[in-house]
Design goal:
Blueprint: E1 2-7, H1 15-35, E2 39-47, H2 50-59, H3 61-67, E3 71-76, E4 85-92, E5 99-103, H4 107-110, H5 115-130, H6 137-140, E6 141-148, H7 151-169, E7 179-184, E8 194-200, E9 209-211, E10 231-235, E11 240-247, H8 262-279, E12 287-294, H9 300-310, E13 316-320, E14 330-338
InterPro entries: RutC-like_sf (IPR035959), YjgF/YER057c/UK114 (IPR006175)
Organism: Segatella copri
Protein name: Translation initiation inhibitor
């Protein structure tokens, strides 16, 4: 089985002190995992200030020894536990082939291009990467993460670009879309408004996928003009994986529920996640981790208390990241697994 862990430095000194702490902490974790025949497969790095931190990160022992040769993504979404940097780490003893593309634009590519144009450029680059493999976006792409700087301004361009790409590739409301999180986030590139991560499985067929619905809780996304699946269950030889998209406090009519109340919004979105998992014959107990996005950092302690109260056994990280609708104070995503 896979194992997920979230690591944050306990050291509160300089950024370099925190990198060194994580180097020791991750190294110790991987030594233990090796005894269980699990190896590092994926790492997500959350930074608080990517422009000022990226160079030091890339020169660190943490990066050079453990991160640079694995499936890696780096995003500026400030960890709200005060750590400056946190890691979501996946180890596995399962050797199902997977490809991970973390596509970022350079300053030259991004400058003078709006969010629509940048999104199209990134999707084009992904399609070029898989074009000679026999894979297609429709069959093999399972999950995306779309990070949007200044999301209240730039999200609409991302939506329109993705809709156009999917139309061209034959992905429709009558076929399927892709599980996804579209959320606030930044890269070290000043003029980049969009960055995207793509998770692709080379050996799957459409029959290996089930698109999760909970129509008494959430409406289909196309009803309000966006194109993503609420969740996808992927049946692999060794296990079932559940990719739950970014989920918020929404009702079956597509309306924001409990505006202004982060406690009740948290409860509603967790209810929505449970309903999606139920459609794939899974439960909340199968969740491996949560990523929790907050619009307002002052809600951190309230949400941290709720998660520790209701799901103390499930790793989670809470980061600052604006959700695509201002009325949503909180959004969560997760992965669940069953043998």
């Amino acid at each position: 089985m896979d194992k997920y862990i979230i690591l944050s430095p306990e050291a509160k000194g300089s950024f370099n002190d925190r990198l060194n702490f994580l180097y020791l902490k991750l190294g110790n974790h991987l030594d233990i995992e090796k005894m269980e025949h699990r190896t590092l497969q994926y790492c997500k790095v959350f930074l608080s200030d990517s422009q000022n931190q990226i160079k030091e990160l890339q020169e660190s022992l943490l990066y050079q020894e453990f991160l640079k040769d694995t499936n890696l993504t780096i995003v500026e979404q400030t960890p709200l536990n005060g750590s400056k940097i946190s890691l979501l780490v996946k180890t596995t003893d399962v050797h199902t082939p997977m490809l991970f593309h973390s596509i970022r634009l350079t300053e030259e590519e991004a400058k003078d291009k709006n969010s629509y144009e940048q999104t199209r450029m990134i999707f084009d680059r992904y399609q070029q990467a898989i074009s000679k493999t026999g894979m297609t976006m429709e069959r093999n792409l399972v999950r995306t993460w779309i990070y949007v700087a200044h999301i209240d301004v730039n999200y609409q361009g991302v939506v329109e670009a993705r809709n156009d790409v999917f139309d061209e590739e034959g992905l429709t409301a009558d076929t399927h879309y892709i599980a996804s999180t579209g959320i606030g986030g930044a890269t070290p590139v000043r003029h980049a408004t969009v960055a995207i991560d793509f998770l692709t499985y080379p050996d799957i067929q459409e029959s290996d996928k089930k698109y999760l619905q909970a129509l008494e809780h959430l409406n289909p996304t196309h009803e309000y003009g966006v194109a993503f699946e609420r969740g996808t269950r992927l049946t692999l030889p060794s296990q079932q994986q559940y990719f739950i998209s970014g989920t918020a406090s929404i009702d079956k009519h597509g309306q924001v529920v409990y505006e202004g109340d982060v406690v009740r919004q948290t409860g509603r979105l967790l209810e929505n996640i449970g309903a999606l998992l139920k459609d794939g014959d899974a439960t909340m107990n199968d969740i491996q981790y949560f990523i929790i996005y907050l619009r307002d950092i002052s809600d951190y302690h309230t949400v941290e208390m709720l998660m520790n109260q209701f799901y103390p056994q499930i790793p989670h990280i809470i980061v600052e990241a604006k959700v695509c609708r201002p009325g949503w104070l909180i959004e969560m995503e997760c992965i669940a697994e069953k043998q």
